[in-house]
Design a protein that fits this description.
Blueprint (H helix, E strand, L loop, with lengths): L1 E7 L6 H10 L6 E6 L13 E12 L2 H13 L4 E6 L7 H6 L2 E4 L7 H19 L9
Parallel strand pairs: 1-2, 1-4, 3-4, 3-5
Length: 140
């Protein structure tokens, strides 16, 4: 299953970009990173077998194991792509939220978009590590 991060805004050469790169390079699953301008730009077409996850402050706060279980369920049921959307500064509107398969939150605090991208990359690496029984994730 393809893990696809679609984010508004350009990350450029920054410490956050280095963090994103550090974690996506470790992924054993296929991945894709797509950047869109803050406004406008064309969202990549959503193909059948795609699940949409929007990062949103109103979303569910999932422990890493629960995110891993969600990805595992989707993968095992034939989902071809899990697309993670990071919106612009104003986030998503109600209609966009309603179209998502999952609203995901990293807590009730507001995070800078570039940092949220790095946090998402790390959580995807952590989730896939959990599914591979890799010792990266430790609970306790």
């Amino acid at each position: 299953m393809l893990l696809h991060i679609v984010a508004r805004g350009r990350i450029g050469r920054s410490p956050e970009a280095e963090l994103v790169e550090r974690y996506v390079k470790r992924l054993s699953w296929p991945y894709k990173l797509t950047e869109l301008p803050d406004t406008g730009g064309k969202m990549p077409a959503v193909e059948p077998g795609c699940r949409i996850v929007m990062l949103d402050e109103t979303g569910q706060v999932l422990p890493s194991r629960d995110l891993a279980a969600t990805l595992e369920k989707w993968r095992d049921s034939g989902v071809r792509e899990a697309r993670f959307l990071i919106g612009a500064a104003d986030g998503f509107d109600d209609a966009q939220r309603a179209s998502a398969d999952l609203l995901l939150s990293f807590g009730r605090a507001t995070w800078p978009h570039l940092l949220a991208r790095a946090m998402l990359a790390e959580q995807l690496y952590r989730a896939t590590s959990i599914l591979a029984n890799h010792p990266y994730h430790r609970e306790g």
